[in-house]
């Protein structure tokens, strides 16, 4: 049909240029896939403050692509993660990034957008995806300007209210909000005390967007607009919040509105907790907030979305290129749904710990603080919040199987190099620590880099501790270990076929 022929085509269309969509676009472009993003916003400018930083595993995945320094140079490093505001020191974690990077979401998005731009990904801005129709060969994507795009796969990275999820008819079961907070950037005629307040009416804070970390403490700048967060006394107000709502909420908590005026933005967040029942419906996939929403406690939403993208990107690229069957895409749901389900549970637990302020609730928090002062509980919860403990179920075997590959410093024929450097191009790597020539990967030589290496130090995993040094490891482009070898190479051909397609 002539009409079909005139449609602009892309191998993948992503709805939404938030952190998840941008990361996914970068991953696909690195793999040489023709990808385009459709974004409602005219520019990357973000109205409102959302995520405040990056956790260790997210910094690691950016390091795996050689772009972590772009973020580190712009942010503030703190050695603590938190669970329901109880600080968890992570400075002893075996990672090069044993800290939280404080960096506002608008900066994170700006840096990601710069990377995606370098990779020449087209972004159709100032228009929305309004619907789609999928058939056996592809998806027709309708845009708000009347245009239509034809694509092999459509990925909904379009946030918590995802049109893609709704149009695909994917269920979003979970729990309605029990608390609701207003956040805003404003000017004040009176000066409130900056910092956090936790009282019978909820959690509230005054702060400034600009701050420094000194001796592990947040020090706010003396001037500039004030950021306010205040718990609403009636959760889940409908519609966009107004200055009047903010005034009323402040007076209910502080007895004054501090002469609040000239808001730059006002928004609302709640503890609504929901997760897509399926991350895939044939040629349509979901990632990021489109697939899971929860309270911001612990700062995990953006991080989980970025890591969804890194799990999905290389798989989708291999399917598009005909390297792998499209059943590889089912491993995306199988691996990432349980990860976000844990995030949902831990944020609900944090909200429960923070929700009440009376002597009994205080006793519970004190008990948790005491427990989290002990090494083992602290490590477990901090590894969960920072996502360093992710374990994809790839079967029985060595503890490295299905876990993140540590960024070891290797000695190779071309000199010393870090494992993560080998992942910059988002291609799989087989590291052989045994005698060179012992592993035959010839039929996969076009897809998998084989590197003979030596490493003399300990193999230490977060929470688990020291593990036996393997003779070889097969690392997926997302940095997770797909196979661990003894000296025989048994199972390698199967693992290569499962993850990187049949032999050539
Ligand atoms: C107050 C608050 C604090 C938070 N703090 C943290 C934190 O500290 N750490 C953390 O990790 N996370 C935090 N989060 C969560 C974080 O902001 C989100 O998880 C993150 O933005 C999700 O990224 P995303 O790309 O999946 O979705 P979004 O950021 O929502 O991006 C979706 C994009 O899709 C676009 N879009 C929507 N519909 C369409 C359409 N039909 N067509 C085209 N484009 C469309 C939107 O314009 C947007 O750009 C916080 C959130 C809030 C509200």
Terminal CA distance = 36 Å
Radius of gyration: 24 Å
Low-confidence stretches: 1-5
> Which ligands occur here?
flavin-adenine dinucleotide
Most strands sheet: 8 strands, mixed
> If you average the pLDDT, what whole number results?
94
Verbal overview:
By secondary structure, the chain is α+β, with helices and mostly antiparallel strands. The strands form 8 sheets. Strands 1, 2, 8, 9, 10, 11, 21 and 22 form an 8-stranded mixed beta sheet that branches. A hairpin with a 2-residue loop joins strand 14 and strand 15 (202-208). It starts with a helix and ends with a helix. Flavin-adenine dinucleotide is lined by residues 15-21, 38-41, 50-53, 105, 128-129, 157-159, 163, 183, 269, 288-289, 296, 299-303, 305.
